[in-house]
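Lab notebook, bench 4. Continuing the backlog of folding jobs that were queued last week. Each job is logged with the same field layout so the records can be merged later without manual cleanup. Today's entry covers Pleckstrin, a 350-residue chain. Filled in by technician R.K.

JOB TYPE: sequence-to-structure
TARGET: Pleckstrin
LENGTH: 350
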Amino acid sequence: MEPKRIREGYLVKKGSVFNTWKPMWVVLLEDGIEFYKKKSDNSPKGMIPLKGSTLTSPCQDFGKRMFVFKITTTKQQDHFFQAAFLEERDGWVRDIKKAIKCIEGGQKFARKSTRRSIRLPETVDLGALYLSMKDTEKGIKELNLEKDKKIFNHCFTGNCVIDWLLSSKSVRNRQEGLMIASSLLNEGYLQPAGDLSKNAVDGTAENPFLDNPDAFYYFPDSGFFCEENSSDDDIILKEEFRGVIIKQGCLLKQGHRRKNWKVRKFILREDPAYLHYYDPAGGEDPLGAIHLRGCVVTSVESNPDAKKSEEENLFEIITADEVHYFLQAATPKERTEWIKAIQVASRTGK
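JOB STATUS: finished
OUTPUT FIELD FOLLOWS
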């Protein structure tokens, strides 16, 4: 009997021999992780046994690479994976940890969570708390804040985070709020913006999180950017990057010239409505952008340039300038979600 497939999807993996990062189709089984060069491949490029393995997340060994986690096997071999966004990383980490625990206890993997936190009370779920903080109606309000002749877009202050934790009855006092906020920061649910909050994270302050109206923070997938900032970390962005991120993830994209298919990381923004695509293995600048205002997006059953084995979950975007883009999702559900999100953005964005 074959091991049960728990989760599968595109992740970027660091090579074991060469220090290159490449997108792989990754499959989590009950007893290990298989990774394939392409989703359509019949045999895996490699396999990582989970018995006795340990998982580290977040893994901050690679500087600006975000959403990385590490699996260390019993032979002390390190395997590094990078997700496209925070919730995706947390989903993989949660399932891998549970699979390892099930192996140790001789149990079958089941979806009901048994996650426990060592540092925090059992009632605190940082993932659920993060989603509540991002709620558009009841969550923390993202603002455009000015400091030292710089404008920080889509961010909020440290004392606002503690105020929200208190008002939502997530904590009993400000000291407890600092502990929770620091954990959110350490786990990557919050990011520092500006010198004051960054210095605190780097260890020049007593607490990594500051309950301070001059300390700025942002959600990692919020579309944060800083204007008139000359530092290496914050880049002046064009108008098309000002939109709020509403969806992101990896898809296959067909090239316009060679008609070959490559994995790309896509970020969908609305108002203005743009779909930017990146090399998932690295690089902060997008490879291209699709202006979605007035576009048409539909599912297609076949593509003249695609092999029969690849004619699954295709959809097409036709821009107002009549440029055609063919994309491929991993599942029918994922294709539907992308089509709906693009349709909404194309109607509401500039």
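OBSERVATION: The CA atoms of residues 144 and 153 lie 4 Å apart.
SIGNED: R.K.
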